[in-house]
Known about the structure:
- By secondary structure, the chain is an alpha+beta fold.
- It has one domain (4-82).
- The protein is 51% helix and 14% strand.
- Strands 1-2 form a two-stranded antiparallel ribbon.
- β1 (68-73) and β2 (76-82) form a beta hairpin.
- The longest helix has 25 residues, at 29-53.
- 0% of the residues are buried.
Amino acid sequence: xxxxxxxxxxxxxxxxxxxxxxxxxxxxxxxxxxxxxxxxxxxxxxxxxxxxxxxxxxxxxxxxxxxxxxxxxxxxxxxxxxxxxxxxxxxxxx
Length: 94
């Protein structure tokens, strides 16, 4: 159990920190918000760019036998490998 003295010290420290937080001012908040929005937009555009360049319709013509490729699947990184053969998978007709 905490003694009354320790509890009083903790309460006074909490009040000091709450007062410090209430008086905290962020300078250039608008600039920071603008930067955050731009960074978010750049990340979205980078993801879109990656989706386009890795789409099979754009990347399959470059998969020729003997070409070196870096193989990744989600968070798994298989490293570098050589293309031996490429076959297009056709969905079965039902």
